[in-house]
Amino acid sequence: MASPGSGFWSFGSEDGSGDPENPGTARAWCQVAQKFTGGIGNKLCALLYGDAEKPAESDGRPSGPSLGKAVWARDQEAPAVAPRGEVNYAFMHATDLLPACNGERPTLAFLQDVMDILLQYVVKSFDRSTKVIDFHYPNELLQEYNWELADQPQNLEEILTNCRTTLKYAIKTGHPRYFNQLSTGLDMVGLAADWLTSTANTNMFTYEIAPVFVLLEYVTLKKMREIIGWSGGSGDGIFSPGGAISNMYAMLIARFKAFPEVKEKGMAAVPRLIAFTSEHSHFSLKKGAAALGIGTDSVILIKCDERGKMIPSDLERRILEAKQKGFVPFLVSATAGTTVYGAFDPLLAIADICKKYNIWMHVDAAWGGGLLVSRKHKWKLSGVERANSVTWNPHKMMGVPLQCSALLVREEGLMQRCNQMHASYLFQQDKHYDLSYDTGDKALQCGRHVDVFKLWLMWRAKGTTGFEAQIDKCLELAEYLYNIIKNREGYEMVFDGKPQHTNVCFWYVPPSLRTLEDNEERMSRLSKVAPVIKARMMEYGTTMVSYQPLGDKVNFFRMVISNPAATHQDIDFLIEEIERLGQDL
């Protein structure tokens, strides 16, 4: 393969610099893209560079200048898309597509037009001149469009319109100025992997129907366990439908470890069980306790310090209280990256307490787990290797498309013993391959979506160092924001000191409140500021950032950065926009 900066990769300049803003670079890129993607390459060039930059043909084949027209694949025996004029979607329905007889051409034309819609949306998602959101109130959207399901089918023209309408009002979560949630960004390799996963359309319960995906899950989970620090990547794990379910898995397995008989006999056969987590932890711990019959009253919330970290001495005090009442402490869930403050609990001290009282230690690192791949920031999770289980959501800081959440367990085989039901129609014991790759019986679900491929493919594309770079960049941007507003007029920090994660929590204080005494009236008025600014952000469509109250603190902004597309200029824009929208309050 040619080396970067020479030969195949040298676009747009004689010295091989490959300047992406050089028109020659654009044309050369388009020529190569056209070779490998047929009409899609031309369409991307038209979207990115305009009609003037579409490449000349280099191999003598017709180019198919737009999606929906002839596509010339490298293999000329592949079915070509029918010319757009020959496909009148107004008179076609889904029954005209594959597997219909002679359905290849209309199917390819239809899917190319769907791809056209998707690619335009992808390009617009990174265009800062476009809105993050085209906000309409629910009743407006319900009245403007007919969303109801009917007995008779719509034609394919209407189906394409449905696709355009849905994306028109979708939130551009990949937009560089979307900061509303912990999961942001739009990774191109991850997106491609998700398309492939949907095309394969298989289930993760046995090797026989998902051979490659099952192996990739095995490889990827092992790599994640190695990064946690478990010797040789030993242990077990599974990809689940989100961090809340991963946390519930941990609670389920911890209970089974302490009382295996609960699987057959239920909660009536075990004593009162108590779980402990911080008062800043995710609500999923209580949801899991409710779902498992343990009860929300059996989840004890441990006090946190002013930065949102669990106080170990209070944890030990509450454990002793529970034991004195005859209850059985069975789980401590520490948090590595709390949802609001981005705090990291002191895992080493918590691990010592769990060892002392023989309690299962779980670490909810759904938000903070990505920092484990950063040599600069992984120290914040020191002690995670002593946990019995860890939740880690690559769809957050690692930027993998939703959903992608892993539950990692240190003890191999425990998850299988906890959940297996030996369904003979799936998990036959006389199959002709290694049955350890039939992973479905250790899951609560039967049908399980393929969530691993997008993470695996992104990891192959970036390497661990690529993930490290984008995570370090997001943390640097958070520090940049903090350094700007910590002493800026009109801003007050919710807690003192540099944030540990990308969470930056602050109040914007409009001019009318800056001279008021710090009393109940001021707090009441301040509590209304963030909601109004957020509403104005959404109506203008310029940016989105979250707010919430917490404890005795009234509504404040919680800025989080997980999108590697964001820049210092986007942070500057956010500050200016908050001030523009809130100065009259």
From TrEMBL:
<comment type="similarity">
    <text>Belongs to the group II decarboxylase family.</text>
</comment>
<dbReference type="GO" id="GO:0004351">
    <property type="term" value="F:glutamate decarboxylase activity"/>
</dbReference>
<protein>
    <recommendedName>
        <fullName>Glutamate decarboxylase 2</fullName>
        <ecNumber>4.1.1.15</ecNumber>
    </recommendedName>
</protein>
<dbReference type="Pfam" id="PF00282">
    <property type="entry name" value="Pyridoxal_deC"/>
</dbReference>
<keyword id="KW-0968">Cytoplasmic vesicle</keyword>
<keyword id="KW-0597">Phosphoprotein</keyword>
<keyword id="KW-0963">Cytoplasm</keyword>
<keyword id="KW-0472">Membrane</keyword>
<feature type="region of interest" description="Disordered">
    <location>
        <begin position="1"/>
        <end position="25"/>
    </location>
</feature>
<keyword id="KW-0663">Pyridoxal phosphate</keyword>
<dbReference type="GO" id="GO:0031410">
    <property type="term" value="C:cytoplasmic vesicle"/>
</dbReference>
<dbReference type="InterPro" id="IPR021115">
    <property type="entry name" value="Pyridoxal-P_BS"/>
</dbReference>
<keyword id="KW-0210">Decarboxylase</keyword>
<comment type="function">
    <text>Catalyzes the production of GABA.</text>
</comment>
<dbReference type="GO" id="GO:0030170">
    <property type="term" value="F:pyridoxal phosphate binding"/>
</dbReference>
<dbReference type="GO" id="GO:0000139">
    <property type="term" value="C:Golgi membrane"/>
</dbReference>
<comment type="subunit">
    <text>Homodimer.</text>
</comment>
<dbReference type="GO" id="GO:0009449">
    <property type="term" value="P:gamma-aminobutyric acid biosynthetic process"/>
</dbReference>
<dbReference type="InterPro" id="IPR002129">
    <property type="entry name" value="PyrdxlP-dep_de-COase"/>
</dbReference>
<dbReference type="GO" id="GO:0006540">
    <property type="term" value="P:gamma-aminobutyrate shunt"/>
</dbReference>
<feature type="modified residue" description="N6-(pyridoxal phosphate)lysine">
    <location>
        <position position="396"/>
    </location>
</feature>
<dbReference type="GO" id="GO:0005829">
    <property type="term" value="C:cytosol"/>
</dbReference>
<keyword id="KW-0530">Neurotransmitter biosynthesis</keyword>
<keyword id="KW-0333">Golgi apparatus</keyword>
<keyword id="KW-0564">Palmitate</keyword>
<dbReference type="InterPro" id="IPR015421">
    <property type="entry name" value="PyrdxlP-dep_Trfase_major"/>
</dbReference>
<keyword id="KW-0966">Cell projection</keyword>
<keyword id="KW-0456">Lyase</keyword>
<dbReference type="GO" id="GO:0042734">
    <property type="term" value="C:presynaptic membrane"/>
</dbReference>
<keyword id="KW-0770">Synapse</keyword>
<dbReference type="InterPro" id="IPR015424">
    <property type="entry name" value="PyrdxlP-dep_Trfase"/>
</dbReference>
<keyword id="KW-1003">Cell membrane</keyword>
<keyword id="KW-0449">Lipoprotein</keyword>
